[in-house]
Amino acid sequence: MGGLLTVNELGLPTEFIYSEPLTPTKLQLSLYGTTLGRYVMVDVVGKGLLEASQARGVPVVLAQPELLPLATRVKRPLCHLSLSAQRPLSEVGQIRQNSEEEFVAQLSEVQSPYHFRIFDRASFPPEQHLPVFIECAARFDLLEPLGRVTRTLEMIRSGAAH
Amino acid sequence: MAPRTDPPGKPPPDKKRTASGLDESQLDPSDLEALRKAVVLKHFPLEAQAAMRQPAAWRVASLDAAALHAVSVAIGEARPLKLRIAPLPTRTKLRKLPLPPLRATMRSDLEAALRQPVRRPRILPETLPRPLYKELHRQLYAKYGEQARELIIAAVFPQVPPEVAPTLKVQHELDFAVFRVPEGVSAARLQKDCYLVILRAPGGETRNVILRLGE
């Protein structure tokens, strides 16, 4: 199962889409082999969720960096986010580029900078999307909604949703 | 014993005539049998084949020629060897195994997501932007008057709308404020820029107040 939670500027849900459990057949297990897991995660569930979402163009925070190849399948800015253990950078909005696929950005005044992992700069130009992250980081914890996605999926899987 | 050969010309109408015209009845049966057992089938060159087919009288009268002639008796007509290789079938029956596609069914369930509690981490009041910090104190004094001097700001939680007050809880020794969006209330209609402030009075009791500080 996979889930996509869209939140507003307060971090409150405005849309939630999930994929029903998927069980490959024995033939599919044999033919796809070791590539099955990644294929299901990226091309079936991930791509399906993003195409079903009504929130077009909104940046997406991925739960796992293994989902970054989704950037080649859908036209949406994708990134994987984590809180770095570094000291805060000098000012809000400052970016320190580590490589083509990684950079560190200061999103709030007192917190540690966030570590961004992206597929490439073409799919996620930092200067273009950082203002949205700065505005949201001033209001709520950017990583907190990911926990709600997990708990919601667990609730649905256990059948306690309704 | 060398076989008697007939002169060239029409072959006599005998039954035991070999392909070369030799009268086989003139041959010693034991010799003939020995020759037949000893013969090794070989592909003789065409010229040799032609020579073997000629009546013995036209060939060199020598023992070697006679032996060749005797061998030709057993061999008979020289035929070129042909190896026949069965051709491979040019068409094979192809079977296509249908590959069932992997498809996931997508569903929307906003209610399930709204039922999950939202967590706000505590922030230090000193970390608020200066205008908000001043506004916070101004509103506390406006609400509590002189008693505000004795109140200690124990915790501040950002973006806690007053509409969620019925579900509001503070957890883990004031580390997190947890709330749910009430049923029937749209998240888009909740007030922004509201802060939950937890005050501690001199007696130890706490007071929770939600103030709209604004940007």
Plain-language structure description:
The complex is a heterodimer of chains A (162) and B (215). Helices cover 31% and strands 21% of the residues of chain A. With 162 residues, chain A is α+β, with helices and mostly antiparallel strands. Chain B is of the alpha+beta class and 215 residues long. Chain B contains 5 helices and 7 strands, in the order H-H-H-E-H-E-H-E-E-E-E-E. In chain B, the strands form 2 sheets. In chain B, strands 2-5-4 form a 3-stranded antiparallel beta sheet, with no helix packed on it. In chain B, strands 3-6-7 form a 3-stranded antiparallel beta sheet, with no helix packed on it. The longest helix of chain B has 15 residues, at 130-144. Chain B starts with 28 loop residues before the first helix and ends with a strand. Chains A and B meet through strand 2, helix 1, helix 2 and helix 4 of A and strand 1, helix 4 and strand 2 of B.
Gyration radius over CA of chain B: 60 Å
Structural class estimated from helices and strands of chain A? alpha+beta
**Helical residue percent band of chain A:** 25-40%
**Interface with most residues:** A-B, 44 and 31 residues
- The count of DSSP E runs of length 2 or more, i.e. the number of strands of chain B, is 7
Secondary-structure topology with pairs:
The complex is a heterodimer of chains A (162) and B (215).
Chain A: E1 3-7, E2 13-19, H1 26-32, H2 36-52, E3 60-62, E4 78-83, E5 95-99, E6 102-105, E7 114-117, H3 126-137, H4 144-157
Parallel strand pairs in A: 3-4
Antiparallel strand pairs in A: 1-2, 4-7, 5-6, 6-7
Chain B: H1 29-38, H2 46-53, H3 63-75, E1 106-108, H4 110-114, E2 118-121, H5 130-144, E3 152-157, E4 169-171, E5 176-179, E6 194-200, E7 206-212
Antiparallel strand pairs in B: 2-5, 3-6, 4-5, 6-7
List keywords for this structure.
heterodimer, A: 162 residues, alpha+beta, five-stranded mixed β-sheet, two-stranded antiparallel ribbon, B: 215 residues, three-stranded antiparallel β-sheet
